[in-house]
Design goal:
- The chain is an alpha+beta fold.
- The protein has two helices and nine strands.
- The strands form two sheets. The protein has a five-stranded antiparallel β-sheet. The chain has a four-stranded antiparallel β-sheet with strand order 1-2-7-4, with no helix packed on it.
- A hairpin with a 4-residue loop joins strand 8 and strand 9 (134-142).
- The longest helix is centred in the last third of the chain and has 26 residues, at 148-173.
- The chain is globular, with a radius of gyration of 20 Å.
- The two termini are 19 Å apart.
Length: 174
């Protein structure tokens, strides 16, 4: 009997799981955060410390933020590091500058900051170690929580689309 799932779908699902589920070897990578709101400017400052509790150098840490060009108004990094914001993907990347010691094993690097007008939200961060292995965890990042009406409309649209898809499939199989 043929499997109802295509190999490409299974490969995509496996890749997503690898991105969002920390492996046992990297469960000790954390991204500690504090958030301070400035009522004068209505901006949030997110301060991060990357804690590498593993025995492998880390190459990159990604923090998801709102996919909006205005989501990040400032990025600050400690000496020896660089940051980039991709407004299309909604990701802020922190990485060591080529030739620096980087996120060394069993170290904590502080001084990473994101300034944003978006409220704090719990998000999955992800990253890669120097051997290309993925890791992830949960941190606080600039996000947007949809209003209840927007969420209800989105769920209704999703359910309607799923219902139409099931009807088409049952007609094809009849």
């Amino acid at each position: 009997m043929r499997s109802p799932h295509s190999p490409m779908l299974l490969t995509a699902a496996s890749a997503l799981c690898a991105m969002f589920v920390p492996s046992l070897g990297h469960a000790q990578v954390t991204l500690d955060s504090t958030v301070v709101f400035d009522s004068g400017t209505s901006l949030y400052t997110y301060s991060y410390s990357v804690v590498n509790g593993t025995s492998i150098d880390l190459a990159l840490v990604d923090i998801p933020v709102v996919a909006d060009p205005a989501a990040v108004s400032s990025l600050v990094v400690p000496t020896g590091y660089q940051a980039a914001f991709d407004s299309g993907l909604g990701l802020v990347d922190f990485s060591p500058v080529l030739g620096s010691t980087g996120f060394a094993p069993h170290s904590t690097v502080s001084g990473f900051e994101i300034v944003s007008s978006f409220k704090p939200n719990q998000e999955f961060f992800s990253g890669l170690d120097s051997q290309g292995n993925a890791f992830s965890g949960v941190t606080t990042a600039p996000g947007s929580v949809p209003e209840p009406g927007t969420l209800a409309l989105g769920l209704t649209t999703l359910m309607t689309g799923a219902g139409l898809s099931l009807r088409r499939r049952s007609r094809r199989n009849a």
